[in-house]
Amino acid sequence: MEAVTRVPEVGQVVAASRGAYSWRITIPEDGSLQFGGLLPTVIQWDGEANPAHALEANGCELLELSLAHPMSAGLVPMFRALRISGPVDLKPGRKR
User: Fold this and answer.
1) Is residue 16 part of a domain?
2) Domain range for residue 38?
3) How far apart are the C-alpha atoms of 88 and 25, rounded to whole Å?
4) Which DSSP string do the residues of 54-94 spell out, in sequence order?
5) How many domains does the chain have?
6) Is residue 96 in some structural domain?
7) Which of these, 55, 44, 40, lies nearest to 21 by C-alpha position?
8) Tell me: the pLDDT tens digits for 54-68?
9) How many Cα atoms within 13 Å fall on the side-chain side of residue 51?
10) CB-neighbour burial class of residue 89 (10 A; exposed 0-12, middle 13-18, buried 19+)
């Protein structure tokens, strides 16, 4: 997974499967959610099967995601390296 090369903090790559789906997922060595859960877990689906394809389009849209963490300045370069884009507001603040 290229994301692990760019941001090793996301964890080790572990293969998983259930039913028709198989994927690779990152899990930190200690199993904890990095940066209080703000650093995302990375999933790469294998093959064509992906549960998102089974979802019905219903018009939902993410308008904004507001995140706060005391070390937000350290997260910004990781978000950029992971190519996270969209309506994400990451700022200094208390863990929530």
Assistant:
1) yes
2) 2-53+62-91
3) 22
4) GSPP-------EEEE-TTHHHHHHHHHHTT--SSEEEE---
5) 1
6) no
7) 44
8) 889 899 888 999 988
9) 8
10) exposed
User: Is 51 within 8 Å of 22 (Cβ atoms)?
Assistant: no
Domain-located, residue 77: yes
* pLDDT digit string, tens, across residues 37-52: 889 999 999 988 889 8
35 Rama sector, left if φ>0, alpha if ψ -120 to 50, beta otherwise:
left
| 27 in any annotated domain | yes
Q: Give CA–CA dist 54/51, Å, rounded.
A: 5
Strand-pair category, 21-27 with 43-45 = antiparallel
pTM of the model: 0.80
